[in-house]
Amino acid sequence: MTQLTTNELRKIEEKLRDRQMTLLEQVRNELDQREDQHLTDLLGHEPGDSGDISLADSLSDLNIARVDRQIHELRDIETALGRIRNGSLGQCIDCGEGIEYQRLLAYPTAKRCLNCQQKHEQGYAQEGHPSL
C-alpha cells in the first residue's frame, strides 16, 4: 500500500475544505431561496392552471433534489476528513490496497481503488432496474 505524504494529505484536505465551504454556501442559498419563493412567485400573481402548478411543483422538487445531492456530498466530505484524521485516507474500503494519489486529487472523497470501484459499479448497475 502506498502511503500518502504529509504534503499530499494537506493538498487533499485543502481541496475537501474548499469544496465543503462552497457546498455549505450553496445549500444556504438554496434554502434561503426556497423560503423566499412561494407558489405565487413561481406562477405570477394570476391564477394558474394545473400545468402551471405542476411546473411549480417540478421546480420545487428540482431544488430539493439539488440540496439533497449537496448534503450527500457534504457527508462524503466529512467522512473523508475523518479518514484523514484517523490515517486511513487513501486505503480502499474493499481490498485494503492504496488508492492512487492522482485519483484522490481528482476525487478526494474516493473510498475505493479504481478496480474495486469498477467492480462495485458493475455489481450495483442494475439496482433499481426491474428485471423479468
Verbal overview:
It is a single chain. 68% of the residues lie in helices and 0% in strands. It is mainly α and 132 residues long. It has one domain (6-124): Up-down Bundle (Four Helix Bundle (Hemerythrin (Met), subunit A)). The longest helix has 37 residues, at 50-86.
What's the layout of helices and strands?
Layout: H1 6-36, H2 39-43, H3 50-86, H4 101-106, H5 114-124
Keywords:
132 residues, mainly alpha, Four Helix Bundle (Hemerythrin (Met), subunit A)
What are the segments in which pLDDT stays under 50 over at least 5 consecutive residues? none
Number of strands: 0
Q: Give the total of domains.
A: 1
**CATH fourth-tier homologous superfamily:** DksA, coiled-coil domain
CATH class: Mainly Alpha
Helix content: 55-70%
Distance between the termini: 43 Å
In terms of DSSP E residues, the strand content is under 5%
Alpha-beta content class: mainly alpha
Oligomer: single chain
Average pLDDT for all residues:
82
Order of helices and strands: HHHHH
SS summary, helix count:
5
The whole-angstrom Rg is 20 Å
